[in-house]
Amino acid sequence: MLRERAFAAVYDAMLGPAERVFLAERRAQLVGEASGSVLEIGAGTGLNLEHYRLAEHLVAAEPSEAMRAKLAPKAGTCAVPVEFIAAGADDLPYPDAHFDTVVSTLVLCTVPKLPAALAEVFRVLRPGGELRFLEHVRGVGSLAEWQDRWLPLWKWFGVGCHPNRDTEAAIRAGGFEVEEIEHWDAPGPIGIVRPQIQGVARRPAG
User: Fold this and answer.
1) What's the pTM value of the predicted model, to 2 decimals?
2) What are 141-154's pLDDT values in tens digits?
3) Angle, CA 92 vertex, CA 86 and CA 98 arms, to 5°
4) Number of domains in the chain
5) Fewer CB within 10 Å of terminal CB in the chain, N or C?
6) Which CATH number does the domain housing residue 67 bear?
7) Cβ pair 169, 140 in contact under 8 A
């Protein structure tokens, strides 16, 4: 799809200012602590790869061919063994309880069916395993109203991005126990793609 290829082509440049100001540091905090057998869903253009340091093995899943074309050349920036697969978060080709950690950064806004994606993440995580997430979420008051109004256009521009998803509530509804969460608002002119959450949720051990 032409629009998907165009979005992938400008994605790194579009996020560049945010990466320099706050996102790269946030990624390093979140991804740097991912350990064991790790799955990253929606790996995009590979902006997280350089931040992995504790994983024994990393699987980077990305359904978009255009994004994967940007992702694979960054394998050399990753300090841990990495494997790339063409798979979406709602259809993961792995058995139950396969991974110790799943990483999601700025991707749960784009999955077509959020509950289905979180159910798959829950399934492939071992009991006690972690979901480490960094996402933009639904605002409150007038911001939420604007997110709802702009949704159709923003989904087209962002190739499926939903600015108005209550992702925290969806994670909790998916059976995860949220152990750490930070609510914050990114600096700079980011419009309706705010506020943000960052944290760790766990598949219950029992």
Assistant:
1) 0.96
2) 999 999 999 999 99
3) 120
4) 1
5) C
6) 3.40.50.150
7) no
